[in-house]
Design brief:
alpha+beta; seven-stranded mixed sheet; Aminopeptidase
Length: about 270
């Protein structure tokens, strides 16, 4: 399975002051400032700005599973002809897209998605793993493919999905992230170049390789935290969506009752 159907991305530990007192100790009337050792203070000064920058513009990216096949199909089928051409390398027909979605191997591959407030899947990435190296003499790679709805473009969602896919591949011990795209697919190749990938063009097609660093405790913690936060975000959106539908339903019932009452008053 590839990312396209066949044609016809350690902070310092938190330091919490603990108040202790004995029978012979006096408790200060004001809080005592906690002073970090000089080495830890320097580490914190380097780490904290990066931490806040990262979470200030955080995008909830949720792993997708078998139960999301219908939503994935809806997302891909809603792509315009030009977008299908850039995503799959040819103008994929509806039945070809459906066959691609039906063939997704969620046990082996990683499929990631971004939902809007209406729980619409506005961006989808497919990270396809191969059991054997795709190119002789090279280590096994993971192939990346992505699509973003037209209304959601210009927000960096494709780049964020690429970063998250690279993090997942790194944590699975993958050495290289691979992209095969049409040379005219400028946005996709721009994402690869921005991440530091080596891009090679061969006529109408281009290939990009991004070497990934080895996994670490920090990278696994980062991915676990991303998953948890995205799940919390999705559940919050789901409850708000349900509440919104309930409020709309109540408003509709009240409107019908009001219209009936107005009709009776007019007859009288």
């Amino acid at each position: 399975m590839t990312a396209s159907p066949p044609p016809p991305a350690d902070g310092p530990p938190a330091l919490t002051p603990q108040a202790t007192q004995g029978h012979d100790r006096q408790v200060p009337s004001e809080p005592v400032p906690v002073r970090l050792p000089q080495r830890l203070s320097a580490q914190a000064s380097r780490w904290m700005p990066e931490f806040w920058r990262r979470w200030a513009d955080w995008v909830p990216i949720r792993p997708l599973g078998r139960r999301h096949r219908r939503r994935i199909a809806q997302h891909l089928l809603s792509l315009a002809e030009r977008d299908r051409y850039l995503r799959f390398g040819y103008a994929a027909r509806d039945e070809q897209i459906q066959k691609y979605v039906d063939g997704l191997n969620f046990s082996r591959d990683e499929v990631l998605g971004i939902f809007n407030r209406k729980l619409q899947l506005i961006a989808v990435a497919h990270l396809a793993y191969e059991p054997t190296p795709q190119i002789k003499g090279r280590p096994a790679m993971a192939e990346f493919g992505v699509s973003v709805l037209n209304a959601a473009r210009g927000r960096g969602f494709g780049g964020r999905l690429f970063e998250r896919a690279a993090l997942h591949a790194r944590n699975r011990g993958i050495d290289t992230l691979f992209i095969h795209a049409l040379s005219e697919n400028g946005p996709m190749l721009a994402i690869a170049r921005k991440a530091g990938a080596k891009v090679e063009r061969d006529g109408s097609e281009s290939e990009a390789w991004l070497r990934l660093p080895p996994d670490s405790v920090s990278s696994h913690v980062d991915e676990a935290l991303e998953r948890h936060m995205a799940e919390v975000d999705f559940q919050l959106k789901r409850h708000l969506h349900t509440l919104g539908n309930f409020i709309d339903g109540v408003a509709e019932v009240k409107s019908k009752i009001s219209r009936k009452a107005s009709g009776k008053s007019a007859k009288q």
